[in-house]
């Protein structure tokens, strides 16, 4: 293989390709990027066996061929190359990379025959959504996706296509986010999309007003001009999320988002860092956050002056980190917070056009000792 391209083309390509890099893997091939040149152009493909990127670069093809680039090493080389033309030649187990000014790198490669192929996209199910809307959905879900490997079904967000709606759901067992939008597709079924794919997706979609997500077999795909981004769908059964959402929480608190967030941060100063516990105390005409850390003799009392509450006296304990994230992601300045008692699931119920959003947070037992 012998091609000529530019530093800029390689930089743009490897900035996308290196997103799939996995630090630890039993398959050493995931540390390499596949490249193939032909009369049709130059294609590069990188994967960690869960997510993958395929892209094309503008290049002059002097001879066809294929090989594997060591991804991290190529990133290092590209960073020090001079601007301008770059010639790449592959001969046996060696790759020569030469800049326009004559700086040359000789690196080794490995056989490419066993490199994973890009999965087949049969264009089975197409879901089209405005890119900004999709980014908002992803941003709302990410913090609630579970990161523990012992619960693989929760290591992604559930895209559940029902007859009339699509539910986008994330939960880690302590909090849950559910966003329901109208289903304008013919897709029916539930698909768990990995967190890594979703975290990369937002940057991959730059410049697009609409996004096409294609669910084909065990994979989800999306395209952006010359680029293809795909991921394996998690092969697990997602739990019945509706079963944990209370049908009716009779008590309601209305508060200002900025004030509530500031008071959570204030109360967090005195928390025990092992539990991160704060408590919300509500009586008619008086609402405040409190945190007590007895070993360090710290107490914080943070009243919510804007709060509106008319109901029985109740105190609810929360993990301050989880509560702060839920409030931070609340899309309205006026927060509507509903609950039943101190130990039942609490709900944040924002008002968002064209969708129904439910944010659930499980309380914790108050221990101010």
Domain module count: 3
Number of helices: 6
The mean pLDDT is 93
Low-confidence stretches: none
Largest sheet: 10 strands, antiparallel
Q: Can you tell me the overall shape?
A: elongated
What is the rounded Rg?
Answer: 26 Å
Number of strands: 27
Strand content: 35-45%
Name of the CATH first level of the largest domain:
Alpha Beta
Under CATH, the homologous superfamily of the largest domain reads: DNA Polymerase III, subunit A, domain 2
Span between N and C termini?
70 Å
Helix content: 10-25%
From the 3D coordinates, which CATH architecture of the largest domain would you assign?
Roll
Oligomeric category = single chain
Sheet/helix structural class: alpha+beta
CATH topology of the largest domain: DNA Polymerase III, Chain A, domain 2
Task: Give a quick precis of the structure.
With 369 residues, the protein is α+β, with helices and mostly antiparallel strands.
How would you characterize the overall build of this protein?
- By secondary structure, the chain is an alpha+beta fold.
- 17% of the residues lie in helices and 43% in strands.
- A hairpin with a 2-residue loop joins strand 2 and strand 3.
- Helix 1 (7-17) runs antiparallel to helix 2 and helix 5 (257-268) packs antiparallel against helix 6.
- The model has no long low-confidence stretch (mean pLDDT 93).
